[in-house]
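Internal ticket - ligand job 279, adenosine monophosphate:
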Amino acid sequence: MKIVDSVAGLNEALDIVRKSGKTIGFVPTMGALHEGHMALIERAVKATDFVVASIFVNPTQFTNASDLELYPRTPEKDAALLQQHGCDLAFFPTAPEMYSSDYVPPVVPLGSLESVMEGEFRPGHFKGVVQVVYRFFDLIRPDFAFFGLKDVQQVAVIKHMVSYLNMKVNIVACPTLRESSGLAMSSRNARLSAEEKEIAVHISRTLTHARELAKMKSPAEVKADAEQFFSSSPMRLEYFRVVDPATLTDLSDRWVPGAVACIAGYCGDVRLIDNMTLN
Ligand code: AMP
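stdout (structure tokens):
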């Protein structure tokens, strides 16, 4: 596996790949890699000829300075994991390299996609996501890009961006990997103590509880009941929503196929999100 930290190094490596006609798969990450990320790499290795992974803690998508500062960073371990799982090129750019002064990001109107759920509680977050992912797509020009459904709203935003800008890349959405306890794998879990990790399992339990309730109750009733269920834990709930998978708007009386329950909450001072398809 080759490791590059500059756009020049990236271009040099990719020129050779493009000339050979190989397909390029891309997995963007913020590092502190875990098995969930590795599932994306493995999927990319199976589906494409040459796999590029980026490790970049993108400052423009953080709305909280201490969250950015405390975000776990494990570059050596990340490089070793990527190599073990068959990644061909690891890109570790710096912020100035990503956002040179002459770089102008495109404007992509996101409508309600950026005002609900994560967008509501992290204003500006999805503008930062669009900015960084567009920049990566522009530099790497992948045939396929792999994203986790753990960040279901991010997948919707990226699909919207690709369609709005008529980009050639195919977006592949991959299922969420969980610990045996049910806790969704996340880089932020590294900031939890063993005790907090046990408490945090209540997030996925709330979602599985909601999935059971969905068999006999309306979306609004599921939401009310799941919020009540969650309140027995010491965590602070930020939101619980039952939404349409395409528009991410709230469901109330009627179910639609693929309805998703989305949750965000704080375990101590660590913000965790998760979601589950209910039907
Ligand atoms: P991050 O490093 O958190 O920005 O995540 C990079 C990519 O990995 C995103 O597409 C995430 O949705 C995905 N991802 C994170 N956690 C998981 C997980 N537990 N299972 C599957 N994909 C994940």
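Auto-summary: The pocket of adenosine monophosphate is lined by residues 29-30, 36-37, 39-40, 147-148, 150-151, 174, 176-177, 184-187 (CB under 6 Å). The chain has a mean pLDDT of 97.
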